Automatic annotation (TrEMBL):
Residues 51-117, 289-348, 367-431 form the CBS domain. It holds the Pfam family CBS. InterPro entries: AMPK_gamma/SDS23_families (IPR050511), CBS_dom (IPR000644), CBS_dom_sf (IPR046342). SUPFAM superfamilies: CBS-domain pair (SSF54631). This is CBS domain-containing protein. The keyword Transferase does not apply. SMART domains: CBS. It comes from Sphenostylis stenocarpa. Keywords: CBS domain, Repeat.
Length: 443
């Protein structure tokens, strides 16, 4: 078993090494300066990093329903929150107290699969009548898309298949024929099933956290080095890092990529920062992600397709483009799925809603003020300081690089900015990470 775990860990680490090596090979920074920065961050303790704005980390109890969790994230204007096991006041181990981190990524997975499941349920009556159980989600999701066969049918519970047959619909063609039609005409019925019928309305954060684990809980201590946090947020591709007291499982801070970049902006005026920030991004090797690597969505494609693209590629946003040359006309973020959940009455036929229709609906319904959906861009001759300012001041997670015709030629994410300032010293994984990353690798 130990050998199997070691093999799994080595494969996982190799994946991160490949990603980070690619970034480092494209980065144009003098070696001496890179070493100076890395050494400086290795001496800064995590305890010196500013606390979350409210002074208290927002936590979500594991038994909170998904709908309520979305409200908490939205009202708090955050993308993720640690999930806490109820009644663990006396727990002395963070593993027993915190189950993971819930974010919009996991919620998107749940919504997309539930949409197909709801279509299947509606074609048989209701979710309750169909006898839908949590274990049938994958099979019904596939069947709702028209995938049939022994393997798919076997995923249905006997109760679900029995109820479907009792309703006069043959199990072998129920999903393939009727579910897509039901899905195309779901409208408000989708929300009735998801929000009012079982098992959807009682679906808890605990249940989707187990099924759609994307953002692992990887804590560091207050006495850890900021270099460790920066590497977790860059090389190891985490979106946030919980900070716990070294002798208790209490969480005292929650460091996000966005918070780090905002912190970097406040370093303006310091020599080590200015010598990088005043350079053009192209002189630093940015954007690391080139034109061919940018994943985009056409404005006339379906909004659900956009969220599927985010799900499939594990990314937090997409540029909305038009035409074969990908002229940017908008921006879509992973957190925008909250509009499909919090205000369902404005989307009476959401499965036929295009990306542009979605953005227009949100704006016209006054759900967002300011420049919702508007693309935030920069040029290849923009300075790093300008890019960091845009990311920090507008609380966005990516900025798209465009040419003179507003065609997308690259993208710069928060992770890219952080990666510019750090590299991993030899043996840092073993010497500094301790249990944290290895715990993540074993999940």
């Amino acid at each position: 078993m130990a050998q199997e775990q070691d093999f799994k860990t080595s494969i996982s680490l190799s994946k991160y090494d490949t990603y980070f090596d690619t970034i480092q090979s494209r980065k144009m920074l003098p070696q001496s300066l890179q070493e100076t920065l890395t050494d400086a961050f290795a001496k800064i303790p995590v305890s010196s990093f500013p606390a979350v704005p409210s002074g208290k980390v927002i936590e979500i109890l594991a038994d909170t329903t998904v709908g309520e969790a979305v409200k908490i994230l939205s009202e708090s204007n955050i993308l993720a929150a640690p999930v806490k096991e109820p009644d663990t006041v006396t727990s002395s181990d963070w593993r027993g107290k915190y189950l993971g981190i819930i974010d919009y990524s996991a919620i998107i997975l749940w919504v997309l699969e539930s949409a197909e499941l709801a279509a299947a349920a509606l074609s048989a009556g209701t979710a309750t009548v169909a006898g839908v159980g949590a274990g049938t989600v994958g099979a019904l999701g596939a069947l709702a898309l028209g995938v049939t066969g022994p393997a798919a049918i076997a995923g249905l519970t006997a109760a679900a298949a029995g109820a479907a047959l009792a309703g006069g619909i043959a199990a072998e063609n129920m999903m393939a024929k009727d579910a897509p039609q039901a899905a195309d005409n779901l409208g408000e019925d989708f929300y009735k099933v998801i929000l009012e019928e079982e098992p959807f309305k009682s679906t808890t954060v605990r249940s989707i956290l187990k099924s759609y684990r994307w953002s692992p809980f990887v804590p560091v201590g207050r006495d850890s080095a900021m270099l460790t946090v920066l590497l977790l947020l860059s090389k190891y591709r985490l979106r946030n890092v919980p900070v716990i007291e070294s002798d208790t499982p209490e969480m005292v801070n929650f460091i996000t990529q966005s918070a780090v970049v905002q912190g970097l902006e406040r370093c303006k005026g310091r020599d080590w920062f200015d010598c990088i920030a005043e350079k053009c991004i192209s002189d630093l090797g940015l954007p690391f992600m080139s034109t061919s690597e940018v994943i985009s969505i056409q404005s006339n494609e379906l909004i659900l397709e956009a969220f599927k693209q985010m799900r499939d590629n594990q990314i937090g946003g997409l540029p909305v483009v038009e035409g074969p040359k990908k002229r940017i006309v908008g921006n879509l973020s992973i957190r925008d799925i909250r509009h499909l959940l919090l205000r369902p009455e404005i989307f009476t036929n959401f499965r036929k809603l295009t990306v542009m229709d979605f953005m227009n609906e949100v704006v016209s319904s006054s759900l967002e003020t300011g420049n919702f959906g508007q693309p935030i861009t920069c040029k290849l001759d923009s300075t790093m300081q300008a890019v960091i300012h845009s990311l920090a001041s507008q609380s966005i997670h990516r900025i798209h690089v465009v040419d003179g015709q507003d065609e997308v030629v690259g993208v710069i994410t928060l992770r890219d900015v952080i990666s510019c300032f750090v590299t991993e010293p030899p043996y840092h994984f073993d010497d500094y990470y301790g249990f944290a990353v290895k715990e993540m690798m074993s999940q």
